[in-house]
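Slide 14.
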Amino acid sequence: MSDYYHHFLSSMAGVGGHPTVNQPEGSPPTQLHQAMPMAGPPISNPYQSLGYFTGFPEPIMFNAPKAQRSRRKSAPGLDHIKHRRTRSGCYTCRSRRVKCDEIHPICERCRKGKRECIYPEPAPSKGSSGLGSRDSTGQSQQTSPSSSHGGDDDDDDAGQESNLDPIMDEEDEPESATTQSSAPIFPLRRPSTTSLFGLQRVATGSRQDSETPSFERNKGSSSPSALASTANPLAPGAIHLPESPTSSARPDWSFLPHELQVYLNYFYENITHYHYCMVNDSYNFFRSILTGMAIRNEALLYAVVGFAAYHHTLKNPDGRIREFLQYYNRSVSLLLTHLKRKEKHNVATLLTILQLATIEEYLGDWVNLMGHQKAALEVLTQLFTPRTVMQSPISRMMLTWYGRFDVFIGIMGSFEASLPREWFTTSLEYYDSMAAAEPANMGWKIEAASAQLRLISMEMSHLFGKGAKQEVSEQEYIAEHRKLSNVLNGWKDGWDPALEDPAYLVTEFPNDRALDPDDIVNPFVSGTLFRPPLFASTILSCEWHSIALMHESQAVSEASEEARVALMEHAYAICQICETVEFWPHSPAGSLIILHPCLAIASLFVPRDTRHHMWIRTKFALLEGMG
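Slide 15: predicted structure.
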């Protein structure tokens, strides 16, 4: 792994620079990252920006040219990452990217905004912390010159990392700060022979008395940074990729500390593949396989637990963001420690990076998301080839997981997807062959349709990227755009009839009611929604409408009235599906979350009146409450 990702993770240690989760009403909106304009006049969008309703940054394709500030810019693909300064300020000010005056027990900004003010726990003394120079360096912050702001810049140049004194996120604070801790992370006792997360013990389900996790609460809890040195994490390279899942049963994590068990139980019972924006999960990957691998690797474990803690906090009226922040920071610190040891990457390394990227997507930090995406690409291409990645359900899911980030970020940023085309075509060939070999298996048909749509999206990202860089002539762009339009329409018309079996259409709605004057669609119309096992067909239809919207809006020629009507029809179809999924009582958990990007695009193409405006705001308020 290049030093780029090491510096990137170091800048994130201490959870510095994350946007506030569930930002309090009345506080200023999070500043979105500005994009460079795309060549060619896009169709005018109905609203000022996509970020007007959502946490998405404005896609380049929908941006009108803007005057650029005279400051250093990152190159396409974000090879340069803005490193953020962190000190000993409270977590809330760090996450809001504002300066903290460090007044205890409540800083001035949190007091005025009536926000929860939580400071990092004090680090152990040098004589007992056990933090070596390598660990300290891992927690230091490197500041990008482009992130400096006049007199606020008190950091040395990032290139002088070797000469910098460590700047720990968890510096000593007054005793009053420690009393605010409500759910500390309990360190795992350093094992003498077999790691707490060793494969042998997990496989047998037994443990020795000497391996019992420590719960010595009265002796004081350790900060996330201190935990990185007190535990002995199992390297990702110790996990081997099985050819197929041996069991979809619930993994045994009874040997873990109680707090981790609570969140893993919550994950297993409440989180689905829809929370990860995955259309299908035939092998129960996220509930069983991912959690089973997480209990064998600490970095992945704390990433998964952090994701569960994030959702648990949102559902709990008394939830505190501190638990999520600690688990997240713990995962980042462990991953950084592993990377600094220059050990061989393996499946758990890639899964940890992908899980952290998913968290960044929920938080709306697209710069951090793209940093993880770049690292995931490096690990994925080191571990697999386009052929070998299709040999296991685990590696196939990782490819789908990464491929979604790659294509989505490429389209949003108007640059080409990073993964070569061969990876997408090989995936489609595999699923097509399996669907032909097992025609009764609905899972293969769904995967084949999804893979083809992902390939089309990848081709779109390449076209938009070339158009943005003016690498193709207008005639070539028009010809390629028309070709993709035909392929996109052919995808919907060429569906396997089994994916649209009318026997699975939802025709009854127990919560049927008279329409409200403010409704813009009727959610109780039969024929909109498929029930399981064809619920994925509903998701794919909605994604198709959103991709068609993005594609047709990028036609070079001026849109005719007929084209504008067609765009509005796609937008209404998305709104119809989202509304129906919301009101159908049997919709799977997380199914609205996977539709969030589709609704975000649709919001740009509905009429600009108060009725539609309020409907969209209501839907995104609902989605914000889901994470």
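Speaker note: The radius of gyration is 25 Å.
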